[in-house]
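Below is how a single chain appears once it has passed through the pipeline. First comes the sequence as given, then the structure the pipeline wrote out for it. We keep one example in the README because the format questions we get most often are answered faster by looking than by reading.
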Amino acid sequence: MAEDLSAEDRIALIRENLQEVLKLDIIEDVIKNQKRPLSIYWGTATTGRPHCGYFVCILKLAQFLRAGCKVKLLLADIHGFLDNLKAPIELVKHRATYYKFVITSMLKSINVPIDRLEFVLGSSYQLTPEFTMDLFRLSSVVTEHDAKKAGAEVVKQVENATLSGLIYPLMQALDEQYLGVDAQFGGVDQRKIFALAAEVLPKIGYKERAHLMNPMVPGLAGGKMSSSDPDSKIDVLDPPEIVTRKLKKAHAAPQEVKDNGLISFVEYVLLPVSALRNSGSAKFVVERRSKPDQPQQEPLTYSSIDHIRSDYASDVLTPQLLKPAATAALLELLAPIQAEYEASEEWKEIAKKAYPPPEEKKKKKEKKDKGSRHPGVQAMSDGHVEGNSKDKVDLGAGGAEKAMQELNLAQDNSDPKT
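Resulting structure:
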Protein backbone atom coordinates (compact mmCIF):
# COMPACT_ATOMS: atom_id res chain seq x y z
CA MET A 1 0.00 0.00 0.00
CA ALA A 2 0.95 3.68 -0.44
CA GLU A 3 1.48 4.07 3.33
CA ASP A 4 4.50 1.77 3.02
CA LEU A 5 6.18 4.09 0.51
CA SER A 6 8.29 7.15 1.29
CA ALA A 7 7.63 10.47 -0.46
CA GLU A 8 10.57 9.81 -2.78
CA ASP A 9 9.29 6.32 -3.60
CA ARG A 10 5.83 7.70 -4.42
CA ILE A 11 7.28 10.30 -6.76
CA ALA A 12 9.50 7.67 -8.43
CA LEU A 13 6.48 5.40 -8.95
CA ILE A 14 4.46 8.28 -10.43
CA ARG A 15 7.29 9.05 -12.89
CA GLU A 16 8.09 5.43 -13.83
CA ASN A 17 7.96 4.65 -17.59
CA LEU A 18 6.74 8.17 -18.46
CA GLN A 19 8.31 9.88 -21.46
CA GLU A 20 8.08 13.39 -20.03
CA VAL A 21 6.94 15.32 -16.95
CA LEU A 22 6.22 19.05 -17.01
CA LYS A 23 6.42 21.01 -13.70
CA LEU A 24 7.68 18.19 -11.48
CA ASP A 25 8.05 20.76 -8.69
CA ILE A 26 4.23 20.93 -8.39
CA ILE A 27 4.09 17.17 -7.73
CA GLU A 28 6.96 17.33 -5.24
CA ASP A 29 5.36 20.21 -3.36
CA VAL A 30 2.04 18.36 -2.96
CA ILE A 31 3.64 15.12 -1.74
CA LYS A 32 6.61 16.43 0.28
CA ASN A 33 5.40 19.77 1.65
CA GLN A 34 1.61 19.63 1.66
CA LYS A 35 1.78 15.94 2.60
CA ARG A 36 -1.44 15.00 0.83
CA PRO A 37 -2.36 12.65 -2.03
CA LEU A 38 -1.67 13.98 -5.51
CA SER A 39 -4.89 14.45 -7.51
CA ILE A 40 -4.56 13.40 -11.17
CA TYR A 41 -7.01 13.13 -14.04
CA TRP A 42 -6.92 11.20 -17.28
CA GLY A 43 -9.46 11.99 -19.97
CA THR A 44 -10.59 9.88 -22.89
CA ALA A 45 -12.94 11.03 -25.64
CA THR A 46 -15.73 8.47 -26.01
CA THR A 47 -15.46 7.73 -29.73
CA GLY A 48 -14.44 4.34 -31.17
CA ARG A 49 -14.43 1.10 -29.16
CA PRO A 50 -11.60 0.97 -26.57
CA HIS A 51 -8.74 -1.23 -27.76
CA CYS A 52 -5.92 -3.11 -26.06
CA GLY A 53 -3.67 -0.05 -26.33
CA TYR A 54 -5.75 1.37 -23.46
CA PHE A 55 -3.92 -1.07 -21.18
CA VAL A 56 -0.89 1.25 -21.43
CA CYS A 57 -2.82 4.04 -19.68
CA ILE A 58 -4.69 1.61 -17.41
CA LEU A 59 -1.38 0.24 -16.11
CA LYS A 60 -0.13 3.76 -15.41
CA LEU A 61 -3.34 4.53 -13.52
CA ALA A 62 -2.59 1.42 -11.45
CA GLN A 63 0.81 2.90 -10.54
CA PHE A 64 -0.77 6.25 -9.62
CA LEU A 65 -3.20 4.45 -7.30
CA ARG A 66 -0.33 2.41 -5.82
CA ALA A 67 1.45 5.71 -5.11
CA GLY A 68 -1.56 6.92 -3.13
CA CYS A 69 -2.89 9.34 -5.76
CA LYS A 70 -6.54 10.24 -6.15
CA VAL A 71 -7.43 9.51 -9.78
CA LYS A 72 -10.30 10.98 -11.76
CA LEU A 73 -11.18 9.42 -15.09
CA LEU A 74 -12.94 11.86 -17.40
CA LEU A 75 -15.32 10.31 -19.92
CA ALA A 76 -15.12 13.19 -22.38
CA ASP A 77 -18.42 12.82 -24.23
CA ILE A 78 -18.55 16.43 -25.47
CA HIS A 79 -14.96 16.19 -26.72
CA GLY A 80 -15.91 13.07 -28.70
CA PHE A 81 -18.57 15.09 -30.50
CA LEU A 82 -16.29 18.09 -31.09
CA ASP A 83 -13.52 16.03 -32.69
CA ASN A 84 -14.81 16.24 -36.25
CA LEU A 85 -18.04 14.43 -35.34
CA LYS A 86 -16.21 11.19 -34.42
CA ALA A 87 -19.18 10.39 -32.19
CA PRO A 88 -22.67 11.66 -33.13
CA ILE A 89 -24.27 13.66 -30.31
CA GLU A 90 -27.05 11.05 -30.06
CA LEU A 91 -24.52 8.31 -29.26
CA VAL A 92 -21.94 10.01 -27.02
CA LYS A 93 -23.68 9.26 -23.71
CA HIS A 94 -24.24 5.62 -24.61
CA ARG A 95 -20.57 5.40 -25.56
CA ALA A 96 -19.53 7.01 -22.28
CA THR A 97 -21.43 4.30 -20.40
CA TYR A 98 -19.82 1.64 -22.61
CA TYR A 99 -16.35 3.08 -21.89
CA LYS A 100 -17.04 2.92 -18.15
CA PHE A 101 -17.93 -0.77 -18.43
CA VAL A 102 -14.79 -1.56 -20.45
CA ILE A 103 -12.30 0.47 -18.38
CA THR A 104 -13.66 -0.83 -15.07
CA SER A 105 -13.37 -4.40 -16.33
CA MET A 106 -9.83 -3.79 -17.62
CA LEU A 107 -8.76 -2.50 -14.20
CA LYS A 108 -10.34 -5.45 -12.40
CA SER A 109 -8.66 -7.90 -14.81
CA ILE A 110 -5.23 -6.79 -13.54
CA ASN A 111 -6.32 -6.69 -9.88
CA VAL A 112 -6.33 -2.91 -9.51
CA PRO A 113 -8.55 -1.62 -6.66
CA ILE A 114 -10.87 1.10 -7.91
CA ASP A 115 -12.09 2.57 -4.61
CA ARG A 116 -9.93 5.70 -5.16
CA LEU A 117 -10.90 5.99 -8.82
CA GLU A 118 -13.70 8.40 -9.71
CA PHE A 119 -15.48 8.47 -13.09
CA VAL A 120 -16.69 11.89 -14.25
CA LEU A 121 -18.86 12.56 -17.30
CA GLY A 122 -17.69 15.66 -19.18
CA SER A 123 -21.18 16.94 -19.92
CA SER A 124 -21.98 16.91 -16.17
CA TYR A 125 -20.11 20.22 -15.80
CA GLN A 126 -19.07 21.35 -19.30
CA LEU A 127 -22.63 22.54 -20.09
CA THR A 128 -22.96 24.73 -16.99
CA PRO A 129 -23.14 28.55 -17.27
CA GLU A 130 -19.90 28.86 -15.25
CA PHE A 131 -17.91 26.61 -17.59
CA THR A 132 -19.36 28.34 -20.66
CA MET A 133 -18.41 31.77 -19.33
CA ASP A 134 -14.86 30.57 -18.60
CA LEU A 135 -14.68 29.15 -22.11
CA PHE A 136 -15.59 32.61 -23.46
CA ARG A 137 -12.94 34.19 -21.23
CA LEU A 138 -10.33 31.72 -22.42
CA SER A 139 -11.25 32.31 -26.06
CA SER A 140 -10.48 36.01 -25.55
CA VAL A 141 -6.83 35.27 -24.67
CA VAL A 142 -6.08 32.39 -27.08
CA THR A 143 -5.47 33.06 -30.76
CA GLU A 144 -6.89 30.93 -33.57
CA HIS A 145 -3.31 29.98 -34.50
CA ASP A 146 -2.45 28.76 -31.00
CA ALA A 147 -5.70 26.80 -30.59
CA LYS A 148 -5.20 25.07 -33.94
CA LYS A 149 -1.54 24.31 -33.17
CA ALA A 150 -2.44 22.88 -29.74
CA GLY A 151 -4.91 20.38 -31.18
CA ALA A 152 -2.89 19.43 -34.25
CA GLU A 153 -1.88 15.96 -33.02
CA VAL A 154 -5.13 15.13 -31.24
CA VAL A 155 -8.03 16.63 -33.19
CA LYS A 156 -8.64 15.10 -36.61
CA GLN A 157 -7.19 17.44 -39.25
CA VAL A 158 -9.31 18.02 -42.34
CA GLU A 159 -9.46 20.62 -45.07
CA ASN A 160 -11.81 23.49 -44.23
CA ALA A 161 -12.09 22.35 -40.59
CA THR A 162 -14.99 23.35 -38.35
CA LEU A 163 -14.63 25.64 -35.30
CA SER A 164 -15.22 22.67 -32.96
CA GLY A 165 -11.57 21.64 -33.38
CA LEU A 166 -10.49 24.99 -31.93
CA ILE A 167 -12.84 24.72 -28.93
CA TYR A 168 -11.55 21.21 -28.08
CA PRO A 169 -8.13 22.21 -26.59
CA LEU A 170 -9.65 25.15 -24.69
CA MET A 171 -12.16 22.87 -22.99
CA GLN A 172 -9.42 20.37 -22.14
CA ALA A 173 -7.43 23.14 -20.46
CA LEU A 174 -10.48 24.16 -18.39
CA ASP A 175 -11.08 20.54 -17.37
CA GLU A 176 -8.05 20.82 -15.06
CA GLN A 177 -9.73 23.61 -13.09
CA TYR A 178 -13.22 22.13 -12.98
CA LEU A 179 -11.98 18.69 -11.94
CA GLY A 180 -9.92 20.27 -9.16
CA VAL A 181 -6.71 18.35 -9.86
CA ASP A 182 -2.98 18.94 -9.40
CA ALA A 183 -1.93 17.21 -12.62
CA GLN A 184 -3.21 15.91 -15.94
CA PHE A 185 -2.03 12.63 -17.47
CA GLY A 186 -2.08 11.62 -21.15
CA GLY A 187 -0.04 10.52 -24.13
CA VAL A 188 2.87 12.56 -25.42
CA ASP A 189 0.68 13.46 -28.41
CA GLN A 190 -1.21 15.73 -25.95
CA ARG A 191 1.88 17.81 -25.19
CA LYS A 192 0.81 20.90 -27.15
CA ILE A 193 -2.57 20.97 -25.39
CA PHE A 194 -0.80 20.59 -22.03
CA ALA A 195 1.56 23.46 -22.89
CA LEU A 196 -1.39 25.65 -23.90
CA ALA A 197 -3.17 24.91 -20.61
CA ALA A 198 -0.07 25.76 -18.58
CA GLU A 199 0.29 29.06 -20.43
CA VAL A 200 -3.29 30.33 -20.55
CA LEU A 201 -5.03 29.17 -17.35
CA PRO A 202 -3.06 31.70 -15.22
CA LYS A 203 -4.23 34.44 -17.61
CA ILE A 204 -7.81 33.97 -16.42
CA GLY A 205 -6.87 33.58 -12.77
CA TYR A 206 -6.39 29.80 -12.43
CA LYS A 207 -3.25 27.97 -11.29
CA GLU A 208 -0.87 26.03 -13.50
CA ARG A 209 -0.92 22.23 -13.25
CA ALA A 210 1.72 19.53 -13.74
CA HIS A 211 1.51 17.28 -16.81
CA LEU A 212 2.52 13.63 -17.10
CA MET A 213 3.02 11.99 -20.50
CA ASN A 214 3.13 8.36 -21.59
CA PRO A 215 5.11 7.40 -24.71
CA MET A 216 3.06 6.59 -27.81
CA VAL A 217 2.94 2.86 -28.48
CA PRO A 218 3.12 1.89 -32.18
CA GLY A 219 0.09 0.12 -33.62
CA LEU A 220 0.20 -3.45 -34.85
CA ALA A 221 0.51 -2.23 -38.43
CA GLY A 222 3.20 0.31 -37.51
CA GLY A 223 2.44 3.97 -36.85
CA LYS A 224 -0.06 5.26 -34.28
CA MET A 225 -2.55 2.87 -32.69
CA SER A 226 -6.02 4.16 -33.49
CA SER A 227 -9.63 3.24 -32.74
CA SER A 228 -10.57 4.18 -36.30
CA ASP A 229 -8.03 1.82 -37.95
CA PRO A 230 -9.12 -1.80 -37.29
CA ASP A 231 -5.81 -3.26 -38.48
CA SER A 232 -3.74 -1.14 -36.08
CA LYS A 233 -5.39 -2.33 -32.87
CA ILE A 234 -7.23 -5.16 -31.13
CA ASP A 235 -10.62 -4.51 -29.54
CA VAL A 236 -10.82 -5.81 -25.97
CA LEU A 237 -13.91 -7.79 -27.01
CA ASP A 238 -12.43 -9.25 -30.20
CA PRO A 239 -12.95 -13.06 -30.16
CA PRO A 240 -9.82 -15.28 -29.96
CA GLU A 241 -9.79 -16.08 -33.69
CA ILE A 242 -9.76 -12.36 -34.55
CA VAL A 243 -7.03 -11.63 -31.99
CA THR A 244 -4.94 -14.48 -33.42
CA ARG A 245 -5.45 -13.31 -37.00
CA LYS A 246 -4.53 -9.68 -36.21
CA LEU A 247 -1.37 -10.65 -34.35
CA LYS A 248 -0.33 -12.93 -37.20
CA LYS A 249 -0.62 -9.92 -39.54
CA ALA A 250 1.17 -7.58 -37.11
CA HIS A 251 4.18 -5.67 -38.41
CA ALA A 252 7.25 -7.37 -36.92
CA ALA A 253 10.18 -7.44 -39.34
CA PRO A 254 12.92 -9.90 -38.30
CA GLN A 255 15.73 -8.35 -36.19
CA GLU A 256 14.11 -4.86 -36.38
CA VAL A 257 13.35 -3.56 -32.89
CA LYS A 258 12.58 0.09 -33.65
CA ASP A 259 8.89 0.87 -34.36
CA ASN A 260 8.05 -2.78 -33.77
CA GLY A 261 4.47 -2.64 -32.48
CA LEU A 262 4.58 -6.19 -31.12
CA ILE A 263 7.70 -5.64 -29.00
CA SER A 264 6.26 -2.32 -27.77
CA PHE A 265 3.07 -4.12 -26.73
CA VAL A 266 5.11 -6.67 -24.78
CA GLU A 267 7.10 -3.83 -23.16
CA TYR A 268 4.21 -1.58 -22.16
CA VAL A 269 1.43 -4.11 -21.55
CA LEU A 270 2.33 -7.79 -21.23
CA LEU A 271 5.46 -7.46 -19.06
CA PRO A 272 3.91 -4.89 -16.64
CA VAL A 273 0.71 -6.96 -16.35
CA SER A 274 2.72 -10.05 -15.44
CA ALA A 275 4.57 -7.99 -12.80
CA LEU A 276 1.25 -6.89 -11.26
CA ARG A 277 0.05 -10.47 -11.15
CA ASN A 278 3.30 -11.92 -9.79
CA SER A 279 4.13 -9.58 -6.88
CA GLY A 280 6.36 -7.35 -8.97
CA SER A 281 8.21 -10.09 -10.91
CA ALA A 282 7.75 -9.65 -14.66
CA LYS A 283 7.73 -12.80 -16.77
CA PHE A 284 7.15 -13.41 -20.48
CA VAL A 285 7.42 -16.99 -21.72
CA VAL A 286 8.03 -17.97 -25.36
CA GLU A 287 7.45 -21.60 -26.21
CA ARG A 288 9.71 -23.19 -28.83
CA ARG A 289 8.65 -26.06 -31.05
CA SER A 290 11.21 -28.69 -31.78
CA LYS A 291 11.54 -30.54 -35.07
CA PRO A 292 10.62 -34.25 -35.00
CA ASP A 293 14.26 -35.38 -35.22
CA GLN A 294 15.48 -32.96 -32.52
CA PRO A 295 15.23 -32.99 -28.69
CA GLN A 296 12.59 -30.79 -27.03
CA GLN A 297 13.77 -27.19 -26.66
CA GLU A 298 13.34 -25.30 -23.43
CA PRO A 299 11.09 -22.19 -23.61
CA LEU A 300 12.64 -18.74 -23.67
CA THR A 301 11.80 -16.86 -20.46
CA TYR A 302 12.20 -13.10 -20.18
CA SER A 303 11.95 -10.71 -17.24
CA SER A 304 13.15 -7.52 -18.95
CA ILE A 305 12.47 -5.76 -22.23
CA ASP A 306 16.22 -5.28 -22.81
CA HIS A 307 16.70 -9.05 -22.93
CA ILE A 308 13.81 -9.36 -25.40
CA ARG A 309 15.23 -6.62 -27.62
CA SER A 310 18.69 -8.19 -27.57
CA ASP A 311 17.42 -11.65 -28.52
CA TYR A 312 15.14 -10.23 -31.21
CA ALA A 313 17.95 -8.17 -32.77
CA SER A 314 20.20 -11.25 -32.85
CA ASP A 315 17.40 -13.43 -34.30
CA VAL A 316 17.26 -15.74 -31.30
CA LEU A 317 13.70 -14.52 -30.79
CA THR A 318 12.02 -14.54 -34.20
CA PRO A 319 8.62 -13.17 -35.30
CA GLN A 320 7.46 -16.79 -35.67
CA LEU A 321 8.20 -17.34 -31.96
CA LEU A 322 7.13 -13.93 -30.65
CA LYS A 323 3.68 -13.77 -32.26
CA PRO A 324 2.25 -17.00 -30.75
CA ALA A 325 3.69 -16.09 -27.32
CA ALA A 326 2.15 -12.60 -27.44
CA THR A 327 -1.14 -14.09 -28.62
CA ALA A 328 -1.30 -16.56 -25.74
CA ALA A 329 -0.50 -13.87 -23.14
CA LEU A 330 -3.03 -11.44 -24.57
CA LEU A 331 -5.82 -14.02 -24.77
CA GLU A 332 -5.21 -14.83 -21.12
CA LEU A 333 -5.44 -11.11 -20.27
CA LEU A 334 -8.66 -10.59 -22.23
CA ALA A 335 -10.46 -13.74 -21.02
CA PRO A 336 -11.91 -12.29 -17.76
CA ILE A 337 -13.04 -9.10 -19.51
CA GLN A 338 -14.85 -11.02 -22.21
CA ALA A 339 -16.39 -13.39 -19.65
CA GLU A 340 -17.74 -10.41 -17.70
CA TYR A 341 -19.19 -8.95 -20.90
CA GLU A 342 -20.95 -12.21 -21.79
CA ALA A 343 -22.44 -12.39 -18.30
CA SER A 344 -23.78 -8.82 -18.33
CA GLU A 345 -27.01 -8.18 -20.24
CA GLU A 346 -26.75 -4.49 -19.33
CA TRP A 347 -23.28 -4.20 -20.90
CA LYS A 348 -24.38 -6.03 -24.04
CA GLU A 349 -27.46 -3.82 -24.37
CA ILE A 350 -25.45 -0.60 -24.02
CA ALA A 351 -22.98 -1.92 -26.62
CA LYS A 352 -25.83 -2.18 -29.14
CA LYS A 353 -26.92 1.38 -28.38
CA ALA A 354 -23.41 2.82 -28.41
CA TYR A 355 -22.28 1.11 -31.62
CA PRO A 356 -25.38 0.20 -33.61
CA PRO A 357 -24.72 -1.87 -36.74
CA PRO A 358 -24.75 0.22 -39.92
CA GLU A 359 -28.03 0.20 -41.81
CA GLU A 360 -28.02 -1.90 -44.94
CA LYS A 361 -28.44 0.20 -48.04
CA LYS A 362 -31.43 -0.84 -50.09
CA LYS A 363 -30.59 -1.46 -53.70
CA LYS A 364 -32.49 0.74 -56.10
CA LYS A 365 -34.57 -1.24 -58.55
CA GLU A 366 -33.20 -0.48 -61.96
CA LYS A 367 -35.43 -0.45 -64.98
CA LYS A 368 -34.56 -3.40 -67.19
CA ASP A 369 -33.60 -2.75 -70.79
CA LYS A 370 -35.78 -5.19 -72.71
CA GLY A 371 -33.84 -4.61 -75.88
CA SER A 372 -34.91 -3.56 -79.38
CA ARG A 373 -35.16 -4.89 -82.90
CA HIS A 374 -32.57 -2.23 -83.63
CA PRO A 375 -29.94 -2.17 -80.84
CA GLY A 376 -28.13 1.14 -80.40
CA VAL A 377 -31.06 3.25 -81.61
CA GLN A 378 -32.91 5.60 -79.30
CA ALA A 379 -36.14 7.43 -80.06
CA MET A 380 -36.05 11.03 -78.86
CA SER A 381 -38.97 13.04 -77.41
CA ASP A 382 -39.60 14.96 -80.65
CA GLY A 383 -39.90 11.73 -82.63
CA HIS A 384 -36.53 11.62 -84.39
CA VAL A 385 -34.04 8.86 -83.70
CA GLU A 386 -30.36 8.74 -82.71
CA GLY A 387 -27.79 5.96 -82.69
CA ASN A 388 -25.47 3.78 -84.77
CA SER A 389 -28.30 2.13 -86.75
CA LYS A 390 -30.20 5.36 -87.31
CA ASP A 391 -30.23 4.98 -91.11
CA LYS A 392 -32.09 1.67 -90.86
CA VAL A 393 -35.09 3.10 -89.04
CA ASP A 394 -35.07 6.82 -89.78
CA LEU A 395 -37.68 7.77 -92.42
CA GLY A 396 -36.03 11.08 -93.15
CA ALA A 397 -37.73 14.40 -93.99
CA GLY A 398 -41.28 13.79 -95.20
CA GLY A 399 -40.70 10.10 -94.80
CA ALA A 400 -43.54 9.64 -92.35
CA GLU A 401 -46.19 10.97 -94.79
CA LYS A 402 -44.81 8.85 -97.60
CA ALA A 403 -44.81 5.77 -95.37
CA MET A 404 -48.47 6.33 -94.47
CA GLN A 405 -49.43 6.66 -98.15
CA GLU A 406 -47.64 3.40 -98.95
CA LEU A 407 -49.39 1.74 -96.04
CA ASN A 408 -52.83 2.91 -97.29
CA LEU A 409 -52.04 1.75 -100.82
CA ALA A 410 -51.04 -1.67 -99.53
CA GLN A 411 -54.30 -1.93 -97.60
CA ASP A 412 -56.38 -0.95 -100.72
CA ASN A 413 -54.72 -3.62 -102.81
CA SER A 414 -55.46 -6.24 -100.22
CA ASP A 415 -59.24 -5.49 -100.04
CA PRO A 416 -61.38 -8.28 -101.73
CA LYS A 417 -63.36 -7.30 -104.84
CA THR A 418 -67.09 -6.97 -104.44
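Residues 319-343 form the longest helix (25 residues).

See the next section for the split statistics.
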